[in-house]
Predict the structure.
Amino acid sequence: MSQPFRRPSGGRIDRSRPLAVTFNGKQLEGFAGDTVASMLIASGQHLAGRSFKYHRPRGILSHGSDEPSALLSVDWRADRGAGYRDPNNRASVVEARDGLVVNTQNHWPSLETDVGAVNDLLSPIFVAGFYYKTFMWPRKFWDRVYEPVIRKAAGLGEAPEVRDADRYSNRHAHCDVLIVGAGPAGLAAALAASADGEKRVILADEGFEPGGALLNDVTSEIDGKPAMAWVAETVATLDARENVVILPRTTAFGYYNHNHVCMVERVSDHRADAPEGLARERLWQVRAGEVVLAAGSHERPLVFENNDRPGIMLAESVRAFVNRWAVLPGNELVVVTSSASAYRTALDAKAAGMRVSIVDIRLDADCGTELSLARDGGITVRTGHTVIKALGGKRVTGLVVAPISANGSIGEKTTLACDCVAMSGGWTPSVHLFSQSRGKLRFDVELDAFVPGTSAQAERSAGACRGVYDLSAVIADGAKAGGGSSTPQATVSFAGFQPVRVLPTDADATKIKAFIDFQNDVTAKDIKLAVREGFESIEHVKRYTTTGMATDQGKTSNMNALGLVAGILDRPLPAVGTTTFRPPYTPVTFGALIGPARDELFDPVRRTPIDPWAEKNGAVFEPVALWRRAKYFPQAGEDMHAAVARETKAVRTTVGIFDASTLGKIEVIGPDAAEFMNRIYTNAWLKLKTGGCRYGLMLREDGFVYDDGVVARLAEDRFHVTTTTGGAPRVMRHMEDYLQTEWPDLDVFLTSITEQWAVIALQGPNARKVLEPFVSEIDLAEDAFPHMTVKTGYVCGVPCRLFRVSFTGELGFEVNVPADYGEAVWKTLYEKGQKHGITPYGTEAMHVLRAEMGFIVVGQETDGTVTADDLGLSGLVSKVKTDFVGKRSLTRPDMVAEGRRQLVGLLTKNPDEVLDEGAQVVDDPGQPIPMKMIGHVTSSYASSNCGRSIAMAMIDGGRTRIGETVFVTTPAGFTEAVISNAVFYDVKGETVDA
Amino acid sequence: MLLIDCPYCGKRPEVEFHCGGEAHIARPEMPTAVEDADWGSFLYYRTNPKGLHAERWLHGHGCGRWFNALRDTVSDAFVATYEMGKPRPDRDEATASSPSNA
Ligand SMILES: [Zn+2]
């Protein structure tokens, strides 16, 4: 493809730097400074895709980020393999560079011949609300017909098939003034805001060159200089200021609370020479003192039959292509307008060599100076005319136009042959970010637009985004928003337009397609139907027809849809409402949002000091809170069941070694430490002797069990508290809360020491034998070191806090050593313990062993509605203490009511059957549904030590029902079980004192 | 994301904090002397004002201190943050609706 439509000179392209892009397998030629859209137009290619619903041929509508139609799949780094392609890139914002591989979307077998275009003929079934109407019935059609067929036929682009191979980065920034948009208003604001050098200023613009609309302007002058010379000078001034950061290719897409603005910067997509590893995009999270919105405005399309034919474009976009990119979007141009600004397009296009005529909806009397300028320039202007329809299929070939008489009737039709149409229905200020900031919009009748009303944050809008269109006024407005002032002398802009919603026609409105929303294929007919069916609020019309709900957020379509609904209902436009604008302003890649938080960094895994040993020794891991813990250590040929049976057996017969490092640990220190413990826990602490341990139970103020764990008193003023693995952070927070807010008089400090200590549990009859050779300064003898005591000394020469405790019911020690020594001590104990039959066990065996003893796990037996008494632990609740957290709640009527759910054991009739945890329990499986549930299973295991399955359950009034038969749900139906005591092994508790 | 002015550290992003609900609800001196209904109110009943609301906040991923804040529930503006134990500052609603919170 050569460039037959490239003008011989001019434009903001660098003709010394030619480049090529692969488009649908063919070479497309262009220059640095081009977009893919301008290259397509240079080659004469207007057909750029098929539409969402009807598969209609679509071209390029716009030159900016509001483009709804020309959506391309782009492989940014085809030379680097898979993972660099993404769909739905707007051709108008994809900066051209060597090596891009782009393809059109939504067609099969090809762009030119698309089978899906049959949808255009079947369009009666795709009317407004067709999702709701079509998919109602029959049910089974949903999976087999609607879903697969319609998903294939409709939709935009194809999701990437492999994971994104690119890198994305993330950056936080602070500034005094953030300016969004580097058009004349934004540049003037930046100049003013940065003038005294005091304020840190960030100026961000979504384009790759600053200037905004001035980039398309070859006639305007500012203070006697061409407009772009003013832009260049201003940018140079700003560049030279240390306090200004200019960010091109950076879209502010979200405006959140407290002036938190999120922006995405395209870092390397435009660089053919981008080194591998350079981030593709960077997410900026900016916290700004003040925000100046200078986001410009969007041109409105006109609504007439076949207004979506390729070659029909927005008028300002035609001007942009002709002037900025030096390409002609055709030879024969008709400008259709109700807006003065389009006359500038006509004049510039004519100057560039296109044959031009103008069709103006307005009457002569309603036009300004632009009319005589055009006529004097030799352009035929048909005022008071409407467009009946566009001719042509894959490219517009003509327009049927007609005069509208004073009584509104349509006069004699004329066909104007053309290959390009520039349309303008006026302008809509871009209030998206203002609206996101929760500012209140105000409808301005003169401007026929919503403009910023009351601000909700420290923010100001300037220029076209608040309806200021004349160039001198725009610059003055920007300077003012930046905290300064400026009175430039600039060329007077052609401004003002007459609002039109749907162009008058004598055609049967129910038979024609005049598009309002190009991206979601919503026509004027659809909106009329929705209103006829009773949808009157724009929010309802929007959801029913999907107008404005595509990825372009209705930038080009919103006002036409609103105006049409208001017109049909004969209500003032604001009475119909405006839609809420939500982030993102333009689509944002998931990559940018996620940044580096993927793979290993997505949800970082906490590992214990002994984790490397466990991995080397074949552990199967499970996640517990943020930790990964060894679940079991299978030997060759073992499944989990076999491994756990072996591990639990070893603990009861020889000795097991277990990594308990994840236990939460908090040190409570200070003269009032015992008093603090006394208030936080249910049991008594004042009399616990130094060197003693106690199982502590902690309630919330509402009386329900919050956490539990063994606590050791290391000194008069020092407690070593353990918590559940998952509960450590919230227990710490809970303790700090009371200490800081209720009892600030207590002299206590809390320190999290979870990460500081590795914990190695030795459990089983041989535990002492394993430990003895390595201990110094501690006497391990039964009478010197009884159950539930703590001693400090050395293990393997390493300082240690040695706990004589057991979560298995066996003789047990928990060896706490500084984390850095954890693995070394573990290895030593494990290797030297071989002769005593030492066996590593994981969390699954730990669970089985504690369940055999009837020990609870907070969060498994409890669910935030369980009391100590429900668990059979009322003995741990002090009757003597006058107060502790949760005490008062224990006497509330519901807490002492009969029939509360209580912890019991369940023994299945079939000893080999293992119940499901969470299974529901009923008395009578024959009762009608819905059945009365009397409880649920909380823990359930196969126990090799008991020679059968065991389960714990919470049952209504359970402790009074020992021995009764109940029925438990299983996937195969109900099964029988007998309620038992929740202790299954060593009921007398003898093994622990060995 | 809110920007919260910790009285001890200064302005920090919301993700560093944890909200602890309504402030200035004192735990009774001797809970066992409180009637059931009053204890129920202490546990569960909270105001839900439109406008200024005094809340407890914990700078958990920072200094670890609890403090109180006056937040406008309509605009999300933080009108004041103050140390635990200090009385609720005397501010009128008009201050809260000011857009300046930077
Ligand atoms: Zn702090």
Q: What stands out?
A: Residues 1-160 of chain A form a domain with the Ubiquitin-like (UB roll) fold (CATH 3.10.20.440). The mean pLDDT of chain A is 94. The CA atoms of residues 604 and 626 of chain A lie 8 Å apart. The longest strand of chain A covers residues 168-180.
